[in-house]
Amino acid sequence: MDFKKQVVDALVKVLPDEITEEQVTKLIEKPKTSDLGDYAFPTFILAKSLHKAPNMIAEDLVGKIETTGFEKVVNTGAYINFFLDKKAFSNSVLNEILNNKENYGNADEGKGRNVPIDMSSPNIAKPMSMGHLRSTVIGNSIAKIIAKLNYNPVKINHLGDWGTQFGKLIVGYKMWGSVEEVEADPINNLLKYYVRFHKEAEEKPELDDEARAWFKKMEDGDKEALALWSWFKELSLKEFQTIYNRLDVQFDHFTGESFYNDKMDAIVDTLEEKGLLEESRGAEIVDLSQYDLSPALIKKTDGATLYITRDLAAAKYRKDTFDFVKSLYVVGSEQAEHFTKLKIVLKKMGYDWADDIVYIPFGLITTGGKKLSTRKGNVILLDNVLNDAVDLAKKQIEEKNPDLKNKDAVAEAVGVGAVVFHDLKNDRRDSFDFNLEEVVRFEGETGPYVQYTNARALSILRKANVDYSDAKDLAIADDQAWDTIKMLQDFPEVVKRAAKEYEPSVVAKYVLKLAKSFNQYYAHSRILADDEGLKARLALVKSVSTVLQMSLALLGVKAPEEM
C-alpha cells in the first residue's frame, strides 16, 4: 500500500482546485521525529491565495480532512501532521518484505539496459594502495545498486598498462634490476625501481629522455620493450587478483589502455576529417580555448599518444560495443578537467551520446594531510591494511566468542568489511585522512556494528525456533517498534536515491540508522514473549535481518550469520 499516496489523496480533497496532486506530492515532508507524525504538509503555499496566516489555514483544513485510515491528523503551527495507522502500516510493510525477500526494493527503472562502469584501474607494476580502494569499492557498490533497479552494469577495469611510466620502469629495471629480484618480490621491487628512477631523474633529466624513447619503442612494436612490458603486466595482474578476491570484486572486462592501441588511428582520422586537429609546437591538439580550457593534447611531438587519445578510443568502443544508456567513470576528483575535455571533444566529433557519459568523482585518502604518491614512495599498501583489519577482527572474536565456528572466515569477512564500509560511509566527494585505528574500529558507526546487529537478529530467530511463515496478520502497534518499521519501508526509496546520486554512502548511512533503531527496539522490548504478538515480532526481526543483509550486499560487505 502506498501510504504517502493516502496522505496526498486526503489533502487533495480539501485543498483549493488550483493546487495539483503533483504539487502536494512534492510538498509532503517526513518529520524528523515520530512524535510530530509520519507525514507533514506545510501550508505556507496557501497563505497568499487564501489571505490567511499559515497556522490558521492548517487549523481550518485539519477539521475538513477525512481521518479514516489514519491514527489521527493534527495541526502543529503551519503544518498538518498525519499519524498513520500503525497496525495497517506494519502489516503491509512486513508482509511485503517477507513475500519479496531479497527482491524487496527491486524496480525496473533500467529495463535491462547497459551501463559500463570504468572503475578501480590501478597502474601495472605498482602495488594497490589505499588510494586504489576508493574507485574499486565505490564502483562495485554503484554496480550493485543500479543492478537492483534492473540496469545491466558492465564493470571495466581500465588498467593503466600503457604510457611513459613504462618507459621509466624499463629504464629503472635495466639499470638496477634483475630477473631473480623481480621474480622474488615482483610488485615491491618494480615499485623500488620506479621510485628510484624519479629520485635520480631530478639530478639526471636525460633519464626522462631515455624513458620516452623506450615508450616510443613500445608503441612502434619493439620486441624487447613489449616483452618486458608484458612480463611486468602478467606479474601485476596476479598480485591484483589476490586483492580483488579478498574484496569479492569481479570484473566483466580487463581492458586496459593498451587494448585501444589499434583503435586510436580511427579517432585521429575522425578528428582530422572534422577539421578539429591542429599543430602546436610539433604536437597535435584540439583547441579548447573557447571553453577556457587548455588544449586537448592528442599526439606528442614524437608521435606518441596520450591518455585522452586512449580515452576517446575507449569511449567510442564502449558505445559501439554496449550501446550504453549511461557510461560511468569512477575516477578521483583531480581528473575533473580531463573528463570535461573528453566530453567536449567527443561532442565536437559529432557524438551526441557524450551527454550520457557521467564522471563520478571522489575525494582523496591522505596520510598526515598529504596525498599518497607512488612516485615518491608515499603509499599505504591495501593488502597490509586488510591484513591488519582481519587480525584485529580475530582478536575481538577470540575475546568475545572463542568457540565460534569458521573463525578465520568470519574474521576475514568482518575485517575486510570494516575497511570497505569505512570508505563507503563517507560521502564519496569528501577526502579523509587515513588512520588505521579509525578504519578498523569495531564500535560506533562501523561495518562490524551492522554485521553484528544482523547476527543478533538471526540469533533471536534461532532461539525462538517458531514458524511464523503462516502468520497473515503481522500488525504491530508497539511504539518501540515504530521507527524501525518506518525505516524498513524507506529502503526502496533509499536504493533509488543512491542510484540517482551515484552515492553508496546513502545506503551506508541508512543501514547504520536501521541497525541503531533495531538495537534500541531489542533493548526495550520482550521480543520472545510467548503471546499473540510473537509471530509478528519475529516477522519484524526477520525483515530487519533481510534489509540489513541486502544493504550490506549493496555495499559489497558480507554478513556472517554468527560473530
Automatic annotation (TrEMBL):
Location in or out of the cell: Cytoplasm
Any single GO BP term: arginyl-tRNA aminoacylation
Catalytic activity: tRNA(Arg) + L-arginine + ATP = L-arginyl-tRNA(Arg) + AMP + diphosphate
One term under GO cellular component: cytoplasm
Pfam families: Arg_tRNA_synt_N, DALR_1, tRNA-synt_1d
Motif ('HIGH' region): 122-132
Domain spans labelled DALR anticodon binding: 450-563
Protein name: Arginine--tRNA ligase
EC number: 6.1.1.19
Family: Belongs to the class-I aminoacyl-tRNA synthetase family.
GO terms for MF: arginine-tRNA ligase activity; ATP binding
Quaternary organization: Monomer.
Keywords: Aminoacyl-tRNA synthetase, ATP-binding, Cytoplasm, Ligase, Nucleotide-binding, Protein biosynthesis
InterPro entries: Arg-tRNA-ligase, Arg-tRNA-synth_N, Arg-tRNA-synth_N_sf, ArgRS_core, DALR_anticod-bd, Rossmann-like_a/b/a_fold, tRNAsynth_Ia_anticodon-bd
Record domain Arginyl tRNA synthetase N-terminal: where: 1-84
HAMAP family per the UniProt record, alphabetical: Arg_tRNA_synth
